[in-house]
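Quick one, T. Sequence first:
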Amino acid sequence: MEPFEPTEPRESGASAARGDDLRTVRDYYAGGDEHDRLRTGAGRLELLRTQDVLRRLLPSSPVSILDVGGGTGAHARWLAGDGHRVRVVDPVPRHVELARRLPGVEAAAGDARALDADEGSWDVVLLLGPLYHLTDAADRARAWREAVRVVRPGGLVVAATISRFASLHDGLRTSLLDDDAFRGMVARDLAEGRHQPPPGSPWWWFTDVYLHHPDEPLEEARAAGLPAPERFAVEGSAGLLPEAEIDARLDDPERRRRLLWALREVEREPSLAGVSNHLLTVARRP
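C-alpha cells:
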C-alpha cells in the first residue's frame, strides 16, 4: 500500500465519484507523484522486488511490453533500459506526459478495460496498477480479458494486486491504529475488501481501491482464460519492517543481497502470501 508522505487532508468528497474509477484515480494522483512513493522504504522495496521477479520471468532477448496503468514509467524506465520495447498506457494525463519523456518509452492515455491494441500484438502485458483501482469485479474481469486478448499466444501477463491485509499491516508498523477512524476503515477492508477512506482523511490513507484476498487474483486470472497462474509475494514479511530499517538494509549492498535472497526463498509459499502487501499474479496465454 504505502502511499505518499503526509501533505494535507483531502477535501470532503474530493474523489467520491463512486462507480467512476477513472475519475477517482485522476483525482488522487493529482495530489502527488506516484514515482516518489517508490523511492524510499516499503515503496522502494516494492519496486526492487517487482524488478527482481520480472527480470527472472522475462527472456534475455528484447520483447514488446505493454505496461497498462504504468504511471510515470517507474518500471518502463528500467525495462526500456534492458532493451525491451515498452509502451505505457495510463488514464492520468500527467503520468502519460512524464512517461513520454523517458528514453525508449512510448506512452498514451488509455483504459485497461478497453485497450487500443490488436489481438495478440504484445509479447508481455503488465497490469501493475489497474486491478486495485478497478473496484468493481466486472471491471477487473474486463481488464483481465483485455490483457489476455492483446498478448500473443504463449505471451506473459503479470498483474499486481494489494493484499486484503495491507491497511492492517500499515497500521501495525506505525501508530495509525491509534486512530479510531483508521481502525474502522481497516475493519471494513478486512470484511469487504473495498478500501474507502472517510471524507477528510489524509492522503496517506490512500484512495478508493479494492484489496484482494491472496487467492482472488488466481481465480480472476483463471476466469479470464489463463489456466495456470502463479503467485509471487513482493515485499513479503520485510514490508512489516519500519521504513528506516528497510532503507538501511537496501543501502548496504551485503544486507540488501541477503534481504532479497530471503524474500526469493519464500516468494511462492502459499501460507505466507497474505503477509505481503503486494502480490504478483503471473500466467501465460494458452
